[in-house]
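TL;DR need structure tokens for one chain.
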Amino acid sequence: MPNPSITLYGLPLSGHCHRVELLLRMLKLPFHYEVVSRSDLSSPTFLALNPLGQIPVLKDGNLVLPDSNAILVYLATEYDDARVWYPVNPVTAAHIQRWLSLAAGEVRFGPAMARAIRLLVRPGDLEAAQKIADRVLIFMDAHLADRRFLANDAATIADLACYSYVALAPEGGISLEPYPHIRAWLERIEALPAFTPMPRSPQPA
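>> reply
TL;DR here they are.
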């Protein structure tokens, strides 16, 4: 049974947190969202939850689990009895893992990094991040040319892991106009029951 004591520690403007929030809502799990400010990340209280000082962190009873992709795997295996979000089929599971790796690699250092540099005034090379984004978006668009979702016929945690930062790629100065299959995929994710959009970042002055 769903644990009513689930707490998600995060920040609404973080795509890493948004992917976890999406799965919690789509699994209809009751949870409390504890908003953690940037300054809180170095506090003793938060470092007791995650010594690396990173969000998100999920607390479910006695379990304290950092890392968005690890949290997705946990929730999908613990609470999705039908195993729709993380199927037991080894081939499908391997495809999902590949996209989780891309979400933690090219998506993070491409569209996510470009957005952070441009809107959140993070240090970094915007042009390099945009080039990484272009490469992964070209790959993703071709992959989706004859597929509805990234790893299976139905949406899985692979789609949620990649959705948020791809959807907000324009905030990093990356147009999605050249990628019709990605745009159609984004619409399919947004049409899923219990979908909740991620807040848009304030534009820099």
